[in-house]
Amino acid sequence: MISTAPNPGRSADGGWIPEGPAILALGPLSLTYRGVSGAIGGPRQQLVLSLLLAAGGKAVSIDQLIDCVWVDEPPASAKGTIHSYLSHLRGAVGDIIFREGNAYRIEVAPENFDVSRFEDLLYRARSVIGMQPRQGAEMIREGLSLWRGDPYSGLTDCRQIHDEAVRLEEVRLGAIEDCIDAELEIGECATLVPPLESLVVTHPFRERLIGQLMIALYRSGRQIEALHVYKRTAARLAEEYGLSPSAELRRLEAMVIAQSRDLQPKQDRFSEE
In 3D, which of 50, 63, 37 has the Cα closest to residue 89? Predict the structure, then answer.
């Protein structure tokens, strides 16, 4: 069953054995090596490293690094201090930070960065999940287990790092939805209802989650409750935004009312043909 909770305190997923030190950003920024994790430098050094990581391999200028580290007027020694931070970071993470003129970039091997590991697992899962939902769900669960909290936790006052953290959170939510779709297809419906209810409370207008909750309830023999979920959503949309549910959600309500055969898992529909 899908777990939507991060794994605080874990350095890396049990199935992920990085070669050499690995950088963890899906939670507080840290370094893990042979199962032991630790912080990387002080808060300002972490800001510098986070901005390089958030740039995705692109060069970041010294001026951008300074703007990220000092919200107010930077000191006259800012450039020298940034160079010092970068020197200390190289000592911590290895020779993976490169200078390009008046800018720096980082090259992290995908197997040594939890963000890359997560996104690679998600890509691979989505390539097989249509035909092999169980295998796809397992890969997504493995990727989600890498999360230890909010990405770049405590470092998102810098706009670029904030934007990357928001992007990653959206990717994570999409991964959860993909995993739920797969688990609905393999029949794990009743066990999905509680985590889906929690997700809908957190994301009350995310209609894909709402639809998944309706399907999970319907397949668990709780047709009336599935319709109540729709009615609550419709009422809240109308009250807060003057909107109606999407055409897809309205179609799903009609299918629940009609007890449509199309609401059965695909494998069950195919077995009847």
Answer: 50
- Encoded tokens for 62: 């010294």
179 burial type by CB count under 10 A (0-12 exposed, 13-18 middle, 19+ buried): buried
Do 68 and 161 meet the contact criterion of CB atoms below 8 Å apart?
Answer: yes
Pairing of strands 60-61, 36-39: unpaired
Report the DSSP beta bridge partners of residue 61.
103
Instruction: Please state which architecture CATH assigns to domain 1-186.
Output: Orthogonal Bundle (1.10)
Where are the domains positioned within the chain?
1-186, 190-273
- Token pair of 80 as six digits: 């020298």
pLDDT at 94: 87
CATH 3.40.50.720 fits 190-273, yes or no: no
- pTM equals 0.89
Q: Is the dihedral of CA 87, 71, 59, 12 positive or negative?
A: positive
H-helix or E-strand spanning residue 22: strand 22-24
Q: Distance between CA atoms of 242 and 55, rounded to whole angstroms?
A: 39
- 224 within 8 A of 195, measured Cβ to Cβ: no
Phi and psi at residue 178, to the nearest 5°: -65, -40
Q: For residue 229, give the amino acid letter.
A: V
Give the residues across from 97 on adjacent strands. 106
Contact assessment for residue 170 and residue 118, using Cβ atoms and an 8 Å cutoff: no
Q: Which one-letter DSSP state was computed for residue 166?
A: H
Task: Spell out, as residue ranges, where the chain has pLDDT lower than 50.
Answer: 9-14, 269-273
Residues 6+ positions from 186 with CB-CB distance below 8 Å: 133, 134, 137, 265, 267
